[in-house]
Give the backbone structure.
Amino acid sequence: MAASKALMASLTHLRPLTCAASASASYPTRLVPQPPDLIKWVRREGGFVHRAVKITQDESKGLGLVAAEEIPRGSEIIVLPEHLPLRFRSVELEHEDGLHSVLVNLARQIPEELWAMKLGLKLLQERAKVGSFWWPYISNLPETYSVPIFFPGEDIKNLQYAPLLHQVNKRCRFLLDFEREVKHSLENLKPDNHPFGGQEVDASSLGWAMSAVSSRAFRLYGNKRIDGTHIDIPMMLPLIDMCNHSFNPNAQIVQEQDPGNLKMLVKVVAETAIKPDDPLLLNYGCLNNDLLLLDYGFVIHSNPYDCIELKYDGALLDAASMAAGVSSPSFSAPAPWQQQILFQLNLAGEAPDLKVSLGGTEIVEGRFMAALRVLLASDAETVQNCELNTLKSTSSEAPLGVANEIAAFRSVIALCVIALGHFPTKIMDDEALLEESASGSTQLATQFRIQKKSVIIDVMRDLTRRVKLLSSKETVNC
Ligand SMILES: C[S@@+](CC[C@H](N)C(=O)[O-])C[C@H]1O[C@@H](n2cnc3c(N)ncnc32)[C@H](O)[C@@H]1O
C-alpha cells in the first residue's frame, strides 16, 4: 500500500497529503524517514548557522537545538535570509496567472482567530508540490501533532474544562466545514489550476497543516503601513522553529534589515551565555496552558500564566459570598450606583464581556476584583471616591476597608470551592491515572486538568494568606 502510494506520487509529481495517526507525543516521526539535513540547507541558501548548533532528540519535547560548545551572550546563532521564511503572500499568489487565486479565495473564508489555517493552505500547497523550494524544510516537519483536535473523543472529554472543550469543538467544526468549502472550490478545476496538484484535501490534512503552523509559526513584522507601523505576519522559520519553548529562554528572535540589500533578516541571538549541551530555548509567549495545548500540544507544569475562566454570574456570586459569610450580598440585584460601575467594567450592558479569570499574574482579574469590592460595599460615596484602577488591583491594600476586602477574598475562595467541585475527578485520581500506561493524549488531557485544579488551589492559598494578613491588620480606608 505504502509502496503503491509512493509510486503514484512519483508518477504524478505529487506528494500525498495525509495526516498519520498520532504516534508517541514526544517522538513524532517526520514526514519522510530520513529528511535532508536542515542545517546544511540553510547554509546553502545563504543563511548562517553557528558552528555549535546541533539538532538533537529531547526527552519529552521532540527534536530541539542544542549548543555543542559555549556560545557567548549576544552572538548570532542563526540568520535566515528573506527568501527562507514561508509565508502566505496573497498579492504574489493572485499574480501567479490566476493559478492560486483559489487559495486566496479560500483564505478569505478563514476567520482571523484561525490565522494558522491561512498559512496552512500555503504549507499544504508546497507539501503537495514536487520540487518545492521548501521541501527540505517541509520534509523535516513532524508527521503528527499532539494538539487536542486529534485527540480521541474520550480524551477531549478528559480535559474536563469547558472553555477548552469549546475551543476544541469550534476548531473541529471549522475543519469539517472548511473541508467542504475546499472540496467545493476544487471541483472541476483543471489539473494545471489545482493548487494541490489534483490531490484530495480533507479535514485531517487541513488539521495537519493548521497544527504545523500554529505550533511552529512566529508572528513577525511584515511590510510597513503608511503610518510607519509594521503589519504583523505569521511566518514559518526553517531551523529556528526547531527551538523548544521556555519562559526563561536563552535566545531570542530579532529582525534586522540587511545593510547590503535592505532585505529583512530573521535572526536568533543568544540572550544569555549558553553553555555546552544547553538546549537553545525561545519564549513562545506568556501563554496559559489552554493556548499551549490548543496550538502547540503541550502543557507547562506550574505555568505562571495559567488561569481559569469563569462566567460573571450574579446568582452564583450571591451563593459563593453567602457561603463565605456575607449576610445579604447584592450580586444579582445591584443598586443603581453599583450597576453603573459594572457598566464601566463591561460586566453589564448590551454586550458585556462576562468572562473573568482567576490565577495567572493577576490572581483575580482586575475587572472582577473591582466588581467584587464594589458589590460587597454598602457606601456609594466611599466607592465613588476611589479610582477604578485602584479598585481593580489586588495589590491596592483594602481600598474599601478591611471588612470589604476580606468579604471579597472569601467570596472568591468559596467560588474556587464550587469550581473545584465541578471537576469529575480529584487530583489524586488524576495522578493515579498518570502512573498507569495511558496513551499520549490521555496523559496530556490529565496533565492539563491537574494544572487547572492546581491553579484554583493556588488562588485559594494565596487569598487565604491575604485574608489572614488582613484580619490581623487595622481597618485601612481608601
Ligand atoms: C516550534 S516546535 C519545536 C521543535 C519540535 N520539538 C520538533 O520536534 O520539531 C514546537 C513543538 O515542540 C514541542 N515543544 C516545544 N517546547 C516544549 C516544551 N517546553 N515542552 C514540551 N514540548 C515542547 C511541542 O511539540 C511544540 O508543538
